[in-house]
Amino acid sequence: MNHLIVVAHPSETSFTMALTRSYAAELEMLGHDMRTCDLYRTGFDPVLTAHELLPANSDHPARSDVVKAQDEIRAADALTVVYPLWWMSMPAMMKGYIDRVFARGFAYEAREGAIRGLLSGKKAVLITISGAPLPVLTKNGRWNAVQVLQDTHILRSTGFDLLEHLHFDEVVPGLPKAAAEEHFLRVRACARQHFSPHSLK
Ligand SMILES: Cc1cc2nc3c(=O)[nH]c(=O)nc-3n(C[C@H](O)[C@H](O)[C@H](O)COP(=O)(O)O)c2cc1C
After folding, report:
1. Is the pTM of this model over 0.85?
2. What ranges make up the beta strands (E) of the chain?
3. What pLDDT tens digit does each residue of the chain (201 aa) get?
4. Residues with CB under 6 A from ligand 1
5. Distance from CA of residue 36 to its chain's centroid?
């Protein structure tokens, strides 16, 4: 299978980036073709311009970085999106990627207020990280908001078959090494669960 991993974290030495590397290493061990789109390190421009709101045609060609990113999604059988929850949402960098790359006509069509996803047939995994404990987020309704807006409104609405939303909670500065190692095992197990040759049969 062809995999695309899209990740947003400003620090290369963050838990988020280490988690992403573990997941990618497991996919590689399983024999998959895999590409990581590291939005900060590649300097992705997250600002959608007025030009991009015009219908793409020869007078208004799509910007080359968006064309490249859309080609990467087209080529992928599975998309994995990784980011820390900031204000219970995605970092602005990831939001800008979604705004620009998941464009109308590529990721969805909208008619009479209803959205039809255009990316069906592709699988997705969403991996998020929070400082707060998951039971607290569930109790105060924040987790439901995350699921409605990020799992359903973005990934499922555009047609992806969302295999799993894997969440790592209580990730705070100074996380003990043993806890981090456990998380790395968990993210590897997620890759194996969905993408080992056995589970793909
Ligand atoms: C700008 C910002 C906003 C944050 N907002 C939240 C939040 O709303 N809820 C939460 O549980 N954690 C929040 N956090 C904590 C991060 O989710 C958590 O510390 C981070 O994901 C840990 O992973 P990292 O070491 O890879 O950064 C926030 C952190 C930052 C920097």
Report:
1. yes
2. 2-7, 33-38, 78-84, 108-111, 114-117, 123-129, 161-168
3. 999 999 999 999 999 999 999 999 999 999 999 999 999 999 999 999 999 998 777 788 889 999 999 999 999 999 999 999 999 999 999 999 999 999 999 999 998 988 999 999 999 999 999 999 999 999 999 999 999 999 999 999 999 999 999 999 999 999 999 999 999 999 999 999 999 988 876
4. 9, 14-16, 84-88, 129-132, 171-172
5. 11
Report CA(71)–ligand 1 centroid distance (Å): 31
| Mutate which of 17, 82, 87, 137 for ligand 1 pocket (most atoms within 8 A of beta carbon) | 87
Q: Write a three-state SS string for 152-199.
A: HHHHHCCCCEEEEEEEECCCCCCCCHHHHHHHHHHHHHHHHHHHCHHH
Please give the structure tokens belonging to residue 145: 């908001």
Among protein residues, the one with the nearest Cα to ligand 1's atom 28 is 86
The number of the ligand 1 atom at minimal distance from the alpha carbon of 169 is: 11
